[in-house]
Specification:
This protein has 200 residues and is mostly helical. The chain contains seven helices and no strands. The mean pLDDT is 95.
C-alpha cells in the first residue's frame, strides 16, 4: 500500500505539471491571445523548466541525507510559494506586463519566466529524487527510473485531459489555480514524508 501511495503522489505531480500548462494558456489568453507564438513560448518555458528541474533534482538526490532533506523542504516551499504567487498575483502581473512591454515576444518571455518557470522547475526537481527513493528501497536504478517517469507521464496525460475536458469548462481559471495550490501543498507534504525514509 505504501508503494501504491508513492506512485499515486508521483502521478499527482505529473497532473499538476501538465495541467498547469493548460491553465497557463488560459491565464495568458486575455492579455496575449492564443496564437502559435504564445504556445511556442509556453511550451518552451515548460520544457526548459522540466530540463532544469531534472538537473537540480538529480544533484540533490546525491547529496548527503541531512542536506538532501533540507533541500527537499526548500524546494517544496518554493514550489508552493511560486504557485501561490501565480494564483493570487498572476492577472495583475500580466496586466502590468501588457501595459509596459509593447513587443509581444518580450512580454511573453517575461510573463512565462515570472509566472510559470519557477514553479514547474521546482515541481520537476522531485522526479529524480523519487527515482533515488525507489533505488534506495532496493529497486534497480533503471527500473526505478522507468517506473517513476512512466507513472509521471501517465499523470501528465491525465492532467491534460482532465484539465481540458472537465475542469476548464466548469470552473474559473482563478478557482483552478487555487485548487492547484491546495493539491500541491497536500501532495508535496505527503511526498516529503515518504522521502524521509530514504533520507535517514
Amino acid at each position: 500500500m505504501a508503494r501504491l501511495f508513492f506512485y499515486f503522489i508521483v502521478g499527482v505531480l505529473g497532473i499538476l505539471s501538465m495541467g498547469f500548462q493548460l491553465l497557463a494558456s488560459r491565464l495568458l489568453n486575455p492579455f496575449f491571445g492564443s496564437s502559435l507564438i504564445v504556445w511556442a513560448w509556453l511550451i518552451s518555458t515548460f520544457l526548459a523548466a522540466f530540463s532544469l528541474g531534472s538537473i537540480v533534482g538529480g544533484g540533490i538526490s546525491n547529496a548527503v541525507p541531512g542536506r538532501r532533506l533540507r533541500a527537499q523542504r526548500l524546494l517544496a516551499v518554493g514550489a508552493v510559494v511560486s504557485l501561490g504567487f501565480t494564483a493570487f498575483a498572476g492577472r495583475n502581473v500580466l496586466g502590468w506586463i501588457e501595459l509596459t512591454f509593447t513587443d509581444l515576444t518580450v512580454g511573453l518571455l517575461i510573463a512565462c519566466a515570472a509566472l510559470f518557470f519557477l514553479p514547474v522547475t521546482l515541481l520537476s526537481s522531485f522526479g529524480p529524487q523519487c527515482v533515488q527513493h525507489l533505488a534506495s528501497m532496493g529497486t534497480p536504478p533503471g527500473k526505478a527510473s522507468g517506473l517513476v517517469y512512466g507513472v509521471s507521464t501517465l499523470g501528465n496525460i491525465a492532467g491534460v485531459m482532465l484539465t481540458a475536458f472537465v475542469l476548464i469548462p466548469h470552473f474559473a481559471v482563478s478557482t483552478l489555480l487555487y485548487g492547484w495550490l491546495g493539491v500541491a501543498v497536500l501532495s508535496l507534504s505527503a511526498l516529503l514524508f515518504i522521502l524521509r525514509s530514504s533520507g535517514r
